[in-house]
Amino acid sequence: MKYMTSSEIRDTFLKFFESKGSAIMPSQSLVPVNDPTLLWINSGVATMKKYFDGSVVPENPRMTSSQKSIRTNDIENVGKTARHHTMFEMMGNFSIGDYFRTEAIAYAFELLTDEKYYGFPVEKLFVTYYPDDKDTYNRWIEVGLPESHLVPIEDNFWEIGAGPSGPDTEIFFDRGEKYDPEHVGLRLLAEDIENDRYIEIYNVVLSQFNADPSIPRKEYKELPQKNIDTGMGLERMTCIIQGGRTNFDTDLFLPIIHEIEKLSGKTYDPDGENMSFKVIADHIRSLSFAIGDGALPGNEGRGYVLRRLLRRAVMHGKRLGIQSKFLAGLVPIVGKVMEDFYPEVLEKADFIEKIIDREEETFNRTIDAGQKLIDELLVQLKDEGKDTLDGEDIFRLYDTYGFPVELTEELAEDEGFKIDHAGFDAAMKEQQDRARAAVVKGGSMGAQNETLSSIEVESTFLYETHTADGKLEVIVSEDKKVEKVSNGTAQLVFDQTPFYAEMGGQVADHGFVKNKEGDVVAEVTDVQHAPHGQNLHTVNVLVPLKVGQTYHLEIDEVRRNAVVKNHTATHLLHAALHNIVGEHALQAGSLNETDFLRFDFTHYAQVTKEELAEIEQEVNEVIWQNIAVKTIETDVETAKAMGAAALFGDKYGKVVRAVVIGDYSVELCGGTHTSTTSEIGLFKIVKEEGIGSGVRRITALTGQKAYEAFKNAENTLTEVATIVKAPQTNQVIAKVTSLTDELKVAQKDNEALAGKLAASQSDEIFKNVQESGKYSYIAREVKVPDVNGLRNLADIWKQKELSDVLVLIARIGEKVNLLVASKNSDLKAGNVVKELAPYIDGRGGGKPDLAMAGGSNAEGIQTLLAHVGEKLV
């Protein structure tokens, strides 16, 4: 076994499978595109789902890739174990209905043991297999693996719900008895005991069944198309080949760790715990790659994961003594380590550093708030005579402020307090349960459709025409190929068609199928791509149709024209966003409908009104310049050299279409467009909103719809002018401003009158002072116009020495409002409010001297007043 760099290990894997006829697929964005079932791309096969379930047939059934992936279901283990990471690279080879068990096992054995490749000694390899899978057992024996190195494991069966599934066989590398001090041996594998001796390096999934959770596994049907899915973790392979004690002791992480040593003044010890070094090195890789792919820190979804990773890394930096901002400075190190295969990290380093630096600065302020909260909690515990910090409070510090439990424990113990670990664990489990429940289900692949997958006839989409004669090649009715259909819904494939199939955000064409006499025989209601790429027309059959007949196909031109205006406008909008918001504003989805366009893009803040106005103005100026919209067919590399932006998730063949709009916009796009920009007519943004962490959405209108929007706005302005009695619409602002100023004066007068009213009735309200233990209190139902009336009465009460506590309750509209004020430091108003609010089906809180609650149960008012005294004891 020879030494290799991580780049050489990756390159060896990819070139080996390329030599076996596999196409090398690029690593996809960590942010899934057109797959709502995934938060992150979490494996190599996650990018291959469309091939495995048969919805798309690949150009080459043999593929290989090295795919960056993120998994964050147990972040807490990063740094504690030798091989746990949030971001990792999964090398894989895939066969879609081509080679299967025989070749897959032979390839794995050759790659691992041949001196031309990794050159592992055969005696160091051990393999697990599914006990019922005798074929796999026999194949391993055939390639030369000793029988004693094969271990049956019942769990070696891959399935996630319905869809493709099958047995898998895992390959382990034996690192020797140095990592097995108790000489447990193969029981470590057979009994699935966590260990550092036998390291899983390769997994071959034999996808041969259609899983059906409603029946026993032995009754699963064979897939019409069997597939191979393998995975080999780059980090683990690098650890083994480079002889690292852990994955972190390799050239993938050590350059980052050495930089952390410089920043902290501390030394990394490969034989020590070093948790903080490992956490920072792991998390900065995830942050760099994820932000580079368009994910941004936030409060939900992907954004929450990134914010949590960043905060965890910062806190571990502080544990190493790094008090200033430091994470952004590690980004170039990450980029340099991964430059051979992922040059985009260095290319986007400035933007990635900017986001990380800004987030770290914000978190430093949060840390101060968390430190203040700890201090307040500890003071409160002292006042209450308690010696233990509550688990829920520890979890709040951890979850909201990013404080590691160890840091909270250290600060508490310095003040002589214990930690409620059990309470923290319970709160953590509740959060994990909520997170699991919130995970989008359905991550498994869909079941293969044998009927659609078997359609292999040629079919051509005609871009330049709205009508065409097409020979009917295939009819699918009730999921079966038939020669004719008389009525109902069917799916049709013609040898050529002008109907656009939904793709890239552009909706499908609708229209009609006619016979040679010109009669409508079917209505086209949808068009999608069949697995082999043909345009599959969904139709309502009106007159019997027959395979082999030629029909006249006509799209709905009015619908198409409306859609293309919106589609071309999205290209202009994308370019304007780059010019005004920044190059990081990458497309994250789009929809080009008949009545509107919707464009999603990555951005870390709300687009300002000024920016939106500038974007709208720029797009309209390009429209008015009447620039020709040209489509050039070329190869991907030539198109990119022209400046074309390729979108993650889009499938590009050998020939691509580059849509060129002068020198303003160049994008790879398979959709239909206007001939010139002036055909769009007009562009109007109607909404900008956030739809997820780090993702914004602009909704806009074009042409007639944009004109109608402007006209409606004009009509509204005219109505407002009439209401405020402005002689002309250009005087509305001045008139409204004047009325607003008058309203403010009136409100101040009302507040003054309310204060006087409160003062006039305060003597009556405050005269009944009651006693409860050592406290005096006043409890009354009062009539006030709003909650300010309650506050006014409380202000008057504070100025007088009347009682220790004031409790006022009022019916305001349909709500019941409760106010509690306290002058005694031993009696906190917030605690009293929480005790009383349930009587009115309410809840609330506040400061020690003043707290309020709102409720809905007016019938509970008298009961509340009757129980005030007992709540003060």
UniProtKB/TrEMBL annotation:
Localisation: Cytoplasm
Domain of life of the organism encoding this protein: Bacteria
Catalysis performed (reactions): tRNA(Ala) + L-alanine + ATP = L-alanyl-tRNA(Ala) + AMP + diphosphate
Record-listed Zn(2+) binding positions: 567, 571, 669, 673
Domain Alanyl-transfer RNA synthetases family profile as annotated: residue spans: 4-712
GO molecular function, one term: alanine-tRNA ligase activity
Cofactor note: Binds 1 zinc ion per subunit.
Cofactor(s), names only, from the UniProt record: Zn(2+)
Keyword Coiled coil: no
Any one Gene Ontology cellular component term annotated for this protein: cytosol
InterPro entries: aa-tRNA-synth_II/BPL/LPL (IPR045864), Ala-tRNA-lgiase_IIc (IPR002318), Ala-tRNA-ligase_IIc_anticod-bd (IPR018162), Ala-tRNA-synth_IIc_core (IPR018165), Ala-tRNA-synth_IIc_N (IPR018164), Ala-tRNA_ligase (IPR050058), Ala_tRNA_ligase_euk/bac (IPR023033), DHHA1_dom (IPR003156)
Endpoints of the signal sequence: none
Homology family: Belongs to the class-II aminoacyl-tRNA synthetase family.
Domain observations: Consists of three domains; the N-terminal catalytic domain, the editing domain and the C-terminal C-Ala domain. The editing domain removes incorrectly charged amino acids, while the C-Ala domain, along with tRNA(Ala), serves as a bridge to cooperatively bring together the editing and aminoacylation centers thus stimulating deacylation of misacylated tRNAs.
Protein's UniProt name: Alanine--tRNA ligase
Organism: Lactococcus fujiensis JCM 16395
Gene: alaS
